[in-house]
Structure formats: structure tokens, C-alpha cells
Amino acid sequence: MLQPDIYPLPALHKPWFKNKIICDEGWSLSFSGSSWRIDRYDYYQGERHLVLGGEGAAGQMDIFLTATLTWSEPNEVALDDQTRERVLHNITAALQWAGYPVGFFDLDQTKRGS
Question: pTM, whole model, 2 decimals?
């Protein structure tokens, strides 16, 4: 589902020639992939790290979500509902700041529909 625009955006900046967006509030988002397609999103908050998959091409960043998101670091700890909402808000804000529309897609629902 395409996310609505976020206002006001937090204080964000991007290092020169990097696919990384840093927020002065203590979190960052990097995105990577192969050739022209983005397929990995790495969200960092302090010592915590969350890896998400997706597709980013043709101007829109599509991110795949599961019912339970877990931090890769530390030790596969699940995000509670409030943290999940804040993290997805931050990811949306960062990518919109960089000029991309953002869509979240439920992988669990996609698997059930196929």
C-alpha cells in the first residue's frame, strides 16, 4: 500500500555518493541492490539493525513486510507494535525525503493469495 506523505520531515541528510540517509534523531536507513534495482533496506537505530527486502525501481520503493518484524541485531528480538509503527514511519520519511514514493506490501497476505 502506498504510504501518505509525511510532514514535517525529521532532520535528515545524506553522505555524498552513498545510498544512506541519516537522521539527527539517531537512526539511519541504507538501501542497496544489484544493477538498477534496490532489493535490500537496512534500518539502524543505536545498536539495533533491521533488514527488509523489497524492490525499488522506476521511481518507487516497495518494501515487503511480514506480520512480525524482528531486529537482526540483537538476537532476533521482535519489534512491538509501537516500535514497528515508528520504524516504518521513519523509513517512509527517509525515502520520501530522498524523493521516492514508498509502498509497504504484506508478504504473508501475498503468499495466501497465490
Answer: 0.84
